[in-house]
Potassium channel protein (Thermococcus eurythermalis), 402 residues
Amino acid sequence: MEEWDEIDVPNNVKDIFIEMKNTAELMVDLAYSSLLFQEKEIAEEVLELEEYLDLLNYHLMVKAVLAARSPKEAEQITAILQMGRAIDEISNAAADLAKMVLEEKLHPVVRDVILESEETIGKVEVSPDSILVGKTLEELDLATNTGVWVSAIRRGKRWIFDPDEDTKIMPGDIIIGRGTRTALDYLKEIARGILKVMRNE
Amino acid sequence: MEEWDEIDVPNNVKDIFIEMKNTAELMVDLAYSSLLFQEKEIAEEVLELEEYLDLLNYHLMVKAVLAARSPKEAEQITAILQMGRAIDEISNAAADLAKMVLEEKLHPVVRDVILESEETIGKVEVSPDSILVGKTLEELDLATNTGVWVSAIRRGKRWIFDPDEDTKIMPGDIIIGRGTRTALDYLKEIARGILKVMRNE
């Protein structure tokens, strides 16, 4: 990942917030993935995202404090700062999990816990004859059509974290996704080329 | 909700953990719902769940410490305690958000942030002629079939938090769900009786 200095931080309180919420949620997903698959690379990404989130939180504080012009506004702005802190707490928790992966302090029960939770994490390789190949995430809309939320994609040696709507699925991609066991199994059948059609197609 | 003393706490480390992870995730969903819809009842539920999670964490610590019989085991068990603390941190963050709803310290930006996040919260009323009516959540499997995760259901004056697979959808139910905007819109069309078929039917 690049230096944060070169990265655009959104310019207003609302957009900073949305970025913070999305980032914290991605961090939790990636932290669980790193625990389940014992992938240190994913764990390191979580720690980098934590730094990014701290930066966002700092910008939020600066902008919020500058915006306060009356006691009433100051009170509302305090609420914004509290919400920022709550999101920051979630990101710290995700970072704590990631550190356990990096320090190799893992217990066999961890894998079972994640696998047996209602909402879990899975990975699946995309076969060359899958209907996913060559389509963008926007076209596929896997969250709606399969119930699986794509957290990351491994392409050869490279990881794509937080893929966006223009990311195109390639043969051999390994998709890391979050969903119910049923939803993940359904996506697996599609990715392996067993199922040749998705809802809405 | 009942007194926790009367509630069965799972009996082994793994099951306590799974319960903790599911509870923390439910708390985050409910906290965002309470912020978005300014529902104090949901916010109070979040605070009750926080107490339950503290109790689970306490049981986890007791069982983990009792299980340690060697320095190597003690190290692994420390990892379990750290994971428990990370999940507890997430639940504290959710509780902080819920407290803001109860103290009415809200800022208009909060609603926008949740609505414009990638994954968001929505609510929809079930019309009497919807195909959802009379089916259980297990039969419907909305997470897989629509990409929407059901967090809670309001039935008249009553809230059903964390509905399970046997919960049956009734006409007039208000479903609070988490998903992408597209997934939530899709569920709305089904709940309103506009769409008469779901994938897999």
